[in-house]
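Friendly challenge for the regulars: who can give me the structure tokens for this chain first? No prize, just bragging rights.
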Amino acid sequence: MRITVLLTIIGGLCLILTGVAFYLGTGTSSITALIPAFIGGPLLMCGLVAMNPKALKVAIHVAAVLVLLAAVGSSRVFIKWVDLSNAARSAQLITLTICVTLLTAYILSFIKARRSA
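First reply, four minutes later:
Bragging rights claimed.
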């Protein structure tokens, strides 16, 4: 299995766990605490689809677009820092870290694939 597929699956699971943990851990019924899980679900699906070699390129490119959008959305933590609770800051920083890590892995994978083609 390619490392990007494995990272996609692990990243999706981590985001799902982050969303559920912050939703349950904050004791509020705010659906926004589940946003990392809403990102992680489709990301996990991309990873599972990418296990099929015929769907690998499309699934990883979809995952890359998804994490790029999530990273841009999560980066607003720096703009809204003062207005956010500690839990919201933490959830957004965790989401941002996972997404930037995955995006970096995807870009390096795309460069490697391009050079070997």
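Helices lie at 3-26, 35-49, 56-74, 86-116. The chain has a mean pLDDT of 93. Your move, everyone else.
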